[in-house]
Amino acid sequence: MVKKILVFMLCVSMLIGLLAGCGSSGTSSDDKADDVNAGSSTGTDNNKEPVTITFWAPNEQNEQFYKEAVAEFEKQNPNIKVETTMLPSINTEIDTKLNAAKLSGTYPDVFVAYLLFIGTRGSKGEFAPLDDYVSKWADKDDILDSAYNSGKYEGKLLGLGFFPAPMLMVYRKDYFEEAGLDPNKPPTNWNELKEYAIKLTKKDASGKLVRAGWDIPIQSGTFLQTMVRQNGGLYIDEEKQYPALDDPKAIEALKFAVDMYNTIGGFPYSYNKLEEVPFIQGKSAISAMNITWLNNLFKEKPDLRGKIDIVPPLVGYSGDKKSAFNGYRYYTIGNDSKHKDEAWKLIEFMMGKEWLWKNYKEYFVPVVRKSLQNDFVSDLNNQQLNGKALLEYVEYGHGEAITPWTSIVNRYAEQAYQEAISNNKTPEQALKDAQKAAVDDLRKNGLIK
C-alpha cells in the first residue's frame, strides 16, 4: 500500500513539472526574438567599432564652416571621429604637405582638392574613384552635371565638385548710366564689349587715363583662358591630351585683348595682387573677378551693392555659345584610405542641402544642387545681383584642363600673354612660340609623345 502511494506521488510530481514547463511563466519564442532585437539597432553604425578619419582642406577663409560641419557630423555619427587639418591655400604649399603625407603613410581620408590636383595627383592614382558610391547615392540626380564632369580623369570620377569658383565679368551700373548706356543691359558678345568699353573709358584733358572702360591685366592668370573659351577655342586639347596654344581661336582671343588694351589703355596690375585691381579702386567699369573677391568687396564697401552687377557669360567673335572659366573645389577620398565607407559618409553629409546653402550664405559659393537653384537666384536678386547670370557661369563654365602637365602649359601661356600685351611680339607669334616651347618641354620630360 505504501509503495502504491509513493508511485502515485511521484507521478503527480512529474505531471506538475511538465505543466510548469508548458506554462506562461517561461520565456516564449517571441520574447527571445525581442531580446535579440534589443541587442541590435536599426542604426547599425552605432554598433561598429569606433573609427577615426582625417579631413584636410585649404583654409580659404572657411575654416569655421568645415569645423561646424564636422562637429555636427560627429554628433550624428558618434562612432566616427574626424580629425580636421587646415592647409595653406597656395597649391605649391599643399603639394608639399601631400608629398610628405604620402611618404609617411598619413595621406588624408578626405581631401578638398583644387581642380588642378585632379590632373596632377589623380593621374598618379592618389584619389579613389567615387563612381560606385555615387551610383548608390539617393541624391545623385539633384547634383549639377558640372560637379561630376569636371572631376573626372580618364572617365573615372575622382572628385565630387561642391564649390564652383567661376571667374565672373562684373560691371558698374552707375558708370553705365553716366556713359549713357542702359545699366540693365550689359554686353552679350565681344562686339558689344568693345563698343561699351570705348564709351566707358575716361581720360583727362591731357589724355591721361582716369578710368578704364574694361581693365585688362598685364599678367594673365585665368584671363587668357577665359577669353579663349569665350571664343570657342582650346587652351589644351583634353581629348588628345596635347597643348593647343596655337589654336586659331586662341590667337584671335589674345589679339582681341591686345587690340583693346592698345585702344582704351589700362592700368598695370596683376591678378595676383588684389589691391591693384582697378575695378576695386573704382578705376574701371568692367572687370573680371572671382566670387571670393566680389564677396569681400561687398563686405568692405557695402555701399557698392546695387551699383555692381554680373555680366552673363559672353560669346566671342568665333564662339557659337556662351562660355566661361569656372574652377571647382572637390571632395576626394585617398586611394590608400582604410576607411573609404566612412569617408564617403562624411562627403555625403557635407553635400547635404543644409551645408551647401550655408556655404553660399556665408561665403557666396554657388549651389550645386538643382533643388536649391530657385532659392539661390531669388536670394541674389534680392541683393540686386543677377543670380541667373551667376548660375550660367557654373553651367557653361569649364576650368583648367585636367592633365598631369597643365601647369607647365600655363607657364608658357603666361609668357606669351605678357609678350603680346607689352607689344614685344604679335599675339600670333607669341602663342606659336609658346606652343613649340611647351611641346618641346613636355616631350623632353616624356610627358607627351
From TrEMBL:
The UniProt record lists the keyword Signal: yes
Spans through the membrane: none
CDD domains, per the entry: PBP2_UgpB
Pfam families on file: SBP_bac_1
Tree of life domain: Bacteria
Parts forming coiled coils: none
Gene3D superfamilies reported for this sequence: Periplasmic binding protein-like II (3.40.190.10)
Signal peptide interval: 1-20
InterPro entries: Bact_solute-bd_prot1, SBP
Residue numbers spanned by region Disordered: 26-50
Record keywords, A-Z: Signal
The keyword Zinc-finger is annotated on this UniProt entry: no
Listed PANTHER family: ARABINOSE-BINDING PROTEIN-RELATED, DIACETYLCHITOBIOSE BINDING PROTEIN DASA
Protein name: Extracellular solute-binding protein family 1
Organism: Mahella australiensis (strain DSM 15567 / CIP 107919 / 50-1 BON)
